[in-house]
Design brief:
The complex is a heterodimer of chains A (434) and B (345). Helices cover 49% and strands 13% of the residues of chain A. Chain A has 434 residues and is α/β, with parallel strands linked by helices. In chain A, strands 1, 2, 3, 6, 11, 12 and 13 form a seven-stranded mixed β-sheet that branches. In chain A, helix 2 runs antiparallel to helix 14 (343-352) and helix 17 (396-411) packs antiparallel against helix 18. The radius of gyration of chain A is 24 Å and the shape is globular. Chain B has two domains: 13-53; 104-344, MetI-like (MetI-like fold, Orthogonal Bundle). Helix content of chain B is 74%, strand content 1%. Chain B contains 14 helices and one strand; from the N terminus they run αβααααααααααααα. Chain B has helices at residues 2-9, 18-53, 59-89, 103-109, 112-143, 149-157, 164-174, 187-194, 210-235, 239-247, 252-281, 284-289, 299-309, 313-344, and one strand at 15-16. In chain B, helix 2 (18-53) packs across helix 3 (59-89). The longest helix of chain B is centred in the N-terminal third of the chain and has 36 residues, at 18-53. The chains are: A alpha/beta (434), B mainly alpha (345). The interface between A and B is large, with 50 and 41 residues. Strand 2 (63-68) of chain A pairs antiparallel with strand 1 (15-16) of chain B.
Chain lengths: 434, 345
């Protein structure tokens, strides 16, 4: 019996010792513990995210447990429904987040972040994009820009093509390229379960630039019908870019639907070029880096913003970004979100490239790795009308129907009326949900 | 080849940081690895002590129930209870608080997408089941006659061990499309263009071929399973019977048709009905390859979309009930046949 008592005493000392260590850690300003993050980054992007997290772990002692999925909406909703949410979620789209916030499943950030620092370092647009019904739920760390046209400056010079400054000039350039026997565009829509989204970028960019932000907002909010004249006009405008029977696009509809979005730019760099222009967001440079031979920014490719369809809406851009929400209020998740808002954290990914543009204004333009990313950061600074990607703002089933509609449209533009009528049906059902 | 490497990088799979996961979840892991077996042994020993206290006569009738009890409990909890819940929900609106009768079913069965999904499920039912059975039977029969039977069977069974998602990636290489002015890297288009001098085909997107292309992936995955079971049944046929037939002057084809096939029928029916259920449950291949686009949707994927994208419990439940209704007769038939086979042994 005596031996047992001694054993218990010894165990107690060990346990107390361990606890004591824990407290001494806290005394030195470290929070410790673990933060569970749900995100979508894999491969190179995951490496960059890890690099961003390293100083955070060093400073706070908080370990990172990261889980990546390409089906974030489903996984997140299941985890929350099961009462097992991650601490922080980094989402590429915010449709599901809006739904969760409205259902009261997310804590607000107004009282958890240093709002005065945020106001000082963030453009008002970016803070407002994070608000749902007037309350701050979402923190953006990096932006990416949509509606960018990539081209090979050498190919342009060889044929004497000029970067178009107006929409009419773009259409004229298209016709000229065709008259010279080339194909103006490469379009690639394949993206597994999300196939079609690159085409939806075209349409939403045209809606914003053609009909303005009021129509754009009421459209993603489900108040403007797909069959309305404004939205239909955006589709037909895109149809003119594609040409009758997709004649302006390399490989036609077959190539568009069968080619992975990341591979779509390959045609720019062949000799002779398969196509002269490729519309895709700023992130696409990370895919260009994977091409063989690897094209060089500036010499092999350059970029111009899609011209304004209607000059009245000049400076309008569709943006998207990495949205972070707190899915569980813990000291660790508060610390993480505060850290992600800092210039220090955002600067790490900016320097590593991959088309990330910091939202914190303290990140200096000189930190961007090349002239192209610097010019994109400048576009973000100069943007007059910033609107978040409409497809990501719509309810998830509306967004998916939108992508599916793109696939049907490029295969047969004549079906447009039937496609839009179907989208109207989905709109009624999708927005009726809570 | 950048395209194919890109495909792998974009695998829609969960990537888990195992190091952190294990260190964080070690207590849970220990609980599962040690605690669960302990609890099971404890349950068996503990209840047996209790049962032994009962009067001798009633012990034999109580003991089976004690043993089967946990199984019934779990099946009830995770199968019967959700099933009943799903059936009830299919008659209510999407918030689950207003009774709407058959409205959900009416809505789903008049939806264009659902009708296409139903048609595709029929394709799957007929072609998938038929092809798996045909190939399975043929391979079982042929493999029986060669020396290297084990090697052949192992190779053909191998796809069974691959997840559907990985299978889809493998077949993406087979079906890969590139425009006709560049060299083809996909297997099928490579053959089509280089040997038959045809135009490359977008196998996954072209609505003339895509459903069959997807079903073929499923067939490739399940043929090994059918072959192994059918081969076991084939080997169960007494050699004397076949010899007797040969002595009577029957040729191999007649033996196959008149002796082997009838004797194997019960097994074929069991494998066939299992395949029918697989066909009705098909989901992964379509989800990964086309997400239901280009007229390739099937009911299970649509159900998933209704539940997770649209958050519409009512429509999802209605589709689940439709699937259930389709499976139940097959299930009953399957069980009866299975019992018949057991009895004959």
């Amino acid at each position: 019996m005596r031996r047992l008592t001694r054993l218990l005493a010894a165990m107690a000392i060990v346990v107390l010792g361990v606890t004591a260590c824990g407290t001494s850690n806290q005394a030195s300003g470290k929070i410790g513990g673990t933060v569970h993050i749900l995100g979508t980054w894999t491969g190179g992007e995951k490496d960059s995210f890890d690099a961003v997290m390293k100083p955070f772990t060093d400073q706070t002692g908080i370990k990172i447990s990261f889980e990546a999925t390409r089906d974030l909406d489903a996984i997140l909703q299941t985890k929350i429904a099961a009462g097992n949410p991650p601490d922080v979620t980094g989402a590429p789209g915010i449709g599901t987040l809006i739904k969760l916030a409205r259902a009261g499943k997310l804590p607000t950030l107004d009282d958890k972040l240093d709002v005065s620092a945020l106001n000082a370092n963030y453009g008002a647009d970016w803070i407002n994009l994070g608000k749902i019904d007037g309350k701050l739920y979402t923190l953006y760390a990096w932006a990416s820009l949509k509606g960018l046209v990539w081209y090979d400056p050498k190919a342009f010079t060889a044929k004497g093509y000029q970067v178009p400054k107006t929409w009419d000039a773009l259409i004229t350039l298209q016709d000229k390229i065709k008259a010279d026997g080339g194909k103006p565009w490469c379009v690639a829509l394949e993206s597994q379960a999300s196939s079609g989204w690159p085409g939806s970028d075209w349409v939403k960019e045209i809606v914003l630039s053609q009909s303005g932000s009021t129509v754009y907002d009421s459209w993603w909010q489900g108040k403007t019908k797909w069959t309305s004249s404004e939205i239909k006009q955006a589709w037909t405008t895109w149809g003119k870019v594609l040409g009758t029977g997709d004649a302006n696009v390399y490989g036609g509809a077959q190539y568009m639907v069968a080619t992975t979005f990341g591979d779509g730019g390959q045609g720019l760099f062949t000799s002779p070029p398969k196509c002269y222009m490729f519309n895709q967001g700023s992130f696409i440079t990370s895919f260009f880096d994977g091409y063989t031979p690897k094209p060089t920014a500036g010499t092999d490719y350059a970029v111009f913003a899609l011209p304004d369809v209607n000059p009245a809406n000049a400076g309008a851009h569709v943006v998207s970004g990495d949205a972070f929400v707190m899915t569980k209020d813990t000291p660790q998740s508060r610390a993480l979100l505060k850290y992600l808002a800092t210039a220090e954290a955002q600067d790490i990914w900016v320097k590593r490239g991959g088309g990330k543009i910091a939202i914190n204004k303290q990140v200096s333009l000189s930190d961007y790795p090349d002239a192209i990313s610097k010019s994109l950061a400048q576009v973000v600074v100069d943007t007059k009308i910033a609107r978040y990607d409409a497809g990501d703002l719509m309810p998830s089933d509306m967004g998916k129907a939108y992508w599916g509609a793109v696939l049907k449209f490029v295969q047969n533009q004549g079906q447009l009326d039937a496609i839009l009528a179907d989208l109207d049906k989905t709109q009624v059902a999708a927005y009726a949900a809570p | 080849m950048d395209g194919s490497l890109g495909l792998i990088a974009r695998l829609p799979a969960l990537q888990v940081d195992w190091g952190t996961l294990v260190s964080v979840n070690l207590p849970t892991l220990l609980f599962v690895v040690l605690g669960v077996p302990l609890a099971l042994v404890g349950y068996i020993l503990g209840t047996d002590v209790l049962v032994r206290r009962l009067p001798k006569r009633s012990q034999p009738s109580v003991r089976p129930w004690v043993w089967v009890g946990p199984a019934i409990l779990f099946v009830g909890l995770i199968l019967v209870y959700p099933m009943v819940g799903t059936i009830v929900r299919s008659f209510f609106d999407r918030h689950g608080d207003k009774f709407v009768g058959l409205d959900n079913f009416r809505l789903m069965l008049t939806d264009n997408g659902v009708l296409i999904a139903l048609r595709n499920n029929v394709y799957w039912l007929v072609l998938y089941t038929g092809l798996v059975l045909t190939f399975g039977l043929l391979l079982a029969f042929l493999a029986d006659r060669v020396r290297y039977e084990k090697t052949v069977k192992t190779l053909i069974f191998m796809p069974m061990a691959i997840s559907f998602v990985a299978m889809a990636v493998i077949w993406q290489f087979v079906y890969y499309y590139r425009p006709s002015d560049v060299p083809q890297t996909g297997t099928l288009n490579g053959i089509l263009v280089n040997i038959f001098h045809g135009q490359p085909i977008t196998w996954i997107q072209d609505t003339r071929f895509n459903n069959f292309a997807l079903i073929l992936i499923g067939v490739w995955g399940a043929t090994g399973f059918a072959m192994v079971i059918l081969s076991a049944a084939l080997k169960g046929i007494p050699a004397e019977l076949l010899e007797a037939a040969r002595v009577d002057g029957a040729n191999e084809l007649t033996i196959f048709r008149r002796v082997i096939l009838p004797l194997m029928m019960p097994t074929i029916v069991v494998v066939g009905t299992t395949m029918v259920i697989f066909a009705l449950k098909a989901f992964d291949v379509v989800y990964v390859m086309t997400a239901g686009n280009y007229n390739t949707d099937i009911l299970a994927r649509r159900m998933y979309a209704e539940l997770y994208s649209a958050g519409n419990n009512a429509n999802a439940s209605a589709l689940a009930v439709i699937l259930l209704l389709a499976v139940v007769p097959v299930l009953i038939f399957n069980l009866r046949q299975f019992r018949a086979v057991e009895e004959r042994r």
